User: Which sequence fits this backbone?
């Protein structure tokens, strides 16, 4: 889940990869297939190149990546997925964006609405909360003692990054959605390993959630979205106590 502490989220995601690797691969495979509709060559299709980079950062096997590309490009039989984004609120007035890829929009809409309702939230209309977020690229590079911070920052900014932050365990590089591919490709050329590289929705402001009941409901909501096969990503602007951050 994308929320207040990006690096905490990445670490949580990596733990989940170990537990439900097949589910993660399925979701990334859908992204690759969708991107491959506009061309099966990553060198001429930035969206596909970004999806492939995300797959590799999650240790997705090369043959699995190639199958997803072929399905999207029509070289193999596959499901025709549709991208649909839902917006709504979680308890405490927390804004939530749910990004899905589905072959059955009625089923997915019903599932998403059910998850909102069951956990004290409400699904809104398109545009209800998306204005509270900015579409940004975020690249996470783990600190390994070998990467020079000044050099990395200079290379990232020269490639078009908007911001660079040194966290306790990692470096966080922020880009616009438009310059993300260029910055990511530059780091690949420099052979800098990326723990995560993706375009995401970054909240403009956060809502501090302290009520124990609201925290439990938000966490349950995020877990249910995580477990839904049609849901690709969920973004929210909740600032939760450190031990409960999603």
Assistant:
């Amino acid at each position: 889940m994308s929320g207040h502490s990006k690096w905490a989220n990445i670490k949580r995601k990596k733990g989940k990869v170990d537990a439900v690797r097949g589910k993660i691969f399925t979701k990334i495979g859908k992204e690759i297939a969708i991107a491959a509709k506009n061309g099966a060559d990553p060198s001429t299709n930035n969206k596909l190149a970004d999806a492939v980079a995300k797959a590799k950062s999650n240790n997705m096997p090369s043959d699995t990546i190639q199958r997803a590309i072929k399905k999207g490009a029509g070289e193999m039989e596959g499901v025709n997925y549709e991208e649909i984004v839902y917006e709504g609120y979680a308890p405490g007035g927390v804004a939530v964006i749910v990004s899905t890829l589905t072959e059955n929009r009625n089923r997915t809409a019903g599932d998403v609405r059910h998850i909102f309702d069951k956990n004290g939230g409400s699904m809104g209309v398109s545009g209800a909360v998306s204005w509270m977020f900015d579409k940004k690229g975020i690249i996470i590079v783990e600190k390994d003692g070998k990467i020079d911070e000044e050099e990395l920052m200079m290379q990232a900014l020269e490639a078009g990054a908007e911001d660079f932050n040194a966290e306790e365990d990692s470096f966080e590089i922020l880009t616009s959605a438009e310059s993300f591919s260029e910055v990511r490709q530059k780091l690949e050329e420099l052979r800098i390993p990326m723990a995560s590289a993706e375009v995401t929705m970054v909240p403009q402001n956060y809502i501090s959630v302290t009520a124990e009941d609201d925290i439990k409901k938000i966490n349950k909501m995020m877990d249910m979205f995580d477990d839904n096969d049609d849901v690709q990503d969920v973004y929210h602007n909740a600032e939760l106590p450190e031990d409960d951050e999603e």
